[in-house]
Amino acid sequence: MKSPALPALISELKFIVHGHGEGQWYAIKTPDKRFLRVGRREYFVASCLDAVRTADEIASRVHEIDSGITLTEQEVVTVVGGLTRMGLISSPDNKPSAAAVSKYSFNPIYMKIPLVDGKLLERAGAWLAPLVCLPAAILIGLLWVVAAMGVLANWDWFASATGKLFVSDSWMWWGLAWLVLKTAHELGHAVTAVRVGSPIRSAGISLIFMAP
To answer: Could you tell me the residue range of the domain that residue 169 belongs to?
Structure first.
């Protein structure tokens, strides 16, 4: 008895190949502007999904494309299951399958409290993703060097000015500054994740041993 054909991918997906040295990875941009990163075998399996081939036929086709990849029928089904959870597989009504992601989990050792939806962060990060590049890294490095030289050249002034900052009356401004800098820092993680094709589920607060 022939195995049933595996479902196809949703339409309008864009695959982007990234390379660094001898390594390669693949990013998928979805119609709702999510960026997902997949490995080599996941990419080849996804490229063979046409709602006609069975798992065994896909395994054979992937091996023809890359002789270094040998998959069993069950491994192909497992990969397709992962793609389904990402929302990349079409359902019978031609709509993406919903990703099964838990919004909240209770664990006294480590908890995550989501506050911002990942799709919103991916859309925001997509605007700044081009900044994650070698020229930007060089520019940031130069700014660090210039800033360090400026501090060393005016060390006495810097030390006296710093002493005026850590006073009890400025706790509100310190809190506001910390919040702004922390938000910018975490947004940087989101931008980098979008740039390399990693999905963002959510953003919020993590509690380790009940401490934020």
So the answer is: 110-208
End-to-end CA distance of the chain: 55
Q: Is residue 103 part of a domain?
A: no
51 lies in the same domain as 127: no
Query: What does each C-alpha distance from 38 to 18, 34, 148, 194 come to in angstroms?
Result: 11, 13, 40, 13
Q: Domain count of the chain?
A: 2
Q: Is the dihedral of CA 79, 81, 85, 88 positive or negative?
A: positive
In tens, the pLDDT along 37-52 reads: 888 889 999 989 988 9
**Exposed, middle or buried: residue 17 (CB in 10 Å: 0-12, 13-18, 19+)?**
exposed
Q: Are residues 77 and 114 in the same domain?
A: no
pTM > 0.90: yes or no: no
| Token couple for 66 | 């890359």
Q: What does the block give as tokens for 146?
A: 């210039």
